[in-house]
Amino acid sequence: MIKSVAIQGVKGSFHHIVAQEYFNGLLESIDECLTFDSAVQSVLTHKTDAVIMAIENSIAGSIIPNYALIDDNKLHIIGEHYLDIQHHLMGLPGQSIEDIHEVYSHPMALLQCKKFFKQYPHIKMVEDKDTAEVAQRIQEKQLKNVGAIASRLASELFELEIIAESIQTIKQNETRFVIAKTSNGFLDEKEINKASLKFTLDHKRGSLASILNVMSDCRMNLTKIQSLPKIDTPWKYAFFVDVTFEKYDDYKKAKSIMEIMAEEFRILGEYKNARQ
Q1: How many domains does the chain have?
Q2: Do 241 and 206 share a domain, yes or no?
Q3: Which residue from 16, 36, 34 is spatially nearest to 25, judged by alpha carbons?
Q4: pTM for this predicted structure
């Protein structure tokens, strides 16, 4: 039973919203961390039961360092959650967009709103650690002429006024979050229909194509593939994949074959597909 989670950010952040939605408001505590590294440490030291981590965005793509954090720390993905991300520009009440000289936010949020700010060359965009933490800082220090890009919940929690709504470049903007623990989940095989896997392959022609063919032959749908360089072996890559399937037996068969084919094979998680 998960009673506490670590999130990157403070209350009002998108990770906080995921914690509320995924656990239906049943959590006893949330550990607010300003970095993903400290959020992972929270679960590794058993301060919390699980950690929530953004893993990819429909506009900005994969959050590659988080793949490495999950793998390096041997975490197990036990669930996922997709959140519709609506970025709002906010500041102290009574200000217009002409009054805003600087906007601080997380690099991913700035990237997703880049096109909007091209209309306002007088605004300087500055990278920061967290969306909601900037909103909190503006409220606490009463910072005029400074804007935050954050959620509507953050504007409500920190009593800021939304100057411009939904400023992300593409209005349909989703981020996929994973819930990870130090141990496996305990779902029944009948409930499992998605898995996250990592493997490395021999450097020879057709090795990746061969393993992808195994997935196809075993009726698995490849929903994500991401390569990361192996730091200890120059020019060698590890592949991170997500697969969905209807029957656990099909996945089980593919898994046994891939374990033989791959030089290194690891199951990062087996869980329910949140996009059904």
Answers
A1: 3
A2: yes
A3: 16
A4: 0.90
| DSSP symbols for 139-173 | HHHT-TTEEEEE-HHHHHHTT-EEEES--SSSSS-
Sign of the four-CA dihedral 18, 24, 25, 31: negative
Q: Cα(3)–Cα(260) distance, rounded to whole angstroms?
A: 38
Range(s) of the domain holding residue 62: 4-84+174-181
Asked if residue 125 and residue 56 are part of one domain, the reply reads no
CATH number of the domain bearing residue 44: 3.40.190.10
- Residue whose tokens read 């597909």: 273
pLDDT, tens digit only, all 276 positions of the chain: 899 999 999 999 999 999 999 999 899 999 999 899 999 999 999 999 999 999 998 877 888 899 999 999 999 999 999 999 999 999 999 999 999 999 999 998 999 999 999 999 999 999 998 999 999 999 999 999 999 999 999 999 999 999 999 999 988 889 999 999 999 888 899 999 999 999 998 878 889 999 999 999 999 999 999 998 887 777 788 999 999 999 999 999 999 999 999 999 999 999 999 987
Look up residue 3 and give its two tokens: 């009673």
Chain Cα centroid distance, residue 191: 23
> What contacts 175, CB < 8 A, 6 or more positions away?
14, 54, 56, 57, 58, 82, 83, 85
89, 192, 198, 222: which is closest to 146 by C-alpha? 89
